[in-house]
């Protein structure tokens, strides 16, 4: 079966991955004897199994099942302390038939027996872009209202945090009138998060230290920022992103501080041809 979600443990040499639950050879043999070449469409829809691989010794890789679930695992993340595994789910058929299939679950990896998935929240939205803020808090984006209990309601993409211990949900950038396109941790969350927010036709960089602090628009170039990635090692921060505008084609840039985006260094030059052409000029909307 193909692997469609995986994550590293942050505390040891284990890798977790999810694939469709495998059936035994005896099952397939009995199935073929009964149905021959008939394909039962719905019968092939089954949930996933999450496995653990210990790669301490690559000459003897050990794979063991962690938990079975009746849904399809979409994203998988391991807590910074390695004690919990959180995953989002969708329909096994990969077709949107019920919003009840789209939820977030948690598994306690400290449980020596087979852990039971715990539903962290119940709503009518599809959670995406899961990231740990700390050992208790998960960040995610949705195109809807997490706190709306009356049914599915589509909004511009928003950013929320979920406390996996008490189930408390908070919305970040709640005063921002645009859509949240992406986000990343700033210094591993110690200084909050970086948000790529779209207003009209531009995507700019914003930061928010916590849900109790205001959203700050950072001074940068006009245009669009994309695919922002952060790293924080030995108290040194690195921020990489893609930027483009009417006058500058897409290239990758990096900087060591969020305060000097206009001083970011360009590290690729893949689209320099566009700088040599007399291209049509444009102006941003509003």
UniProtKB/TrEMBL annotation:
<protein>
    <submittedName>
        <fullName>Uncharacterized protein</fullName>
    </submittedName>
</protein>
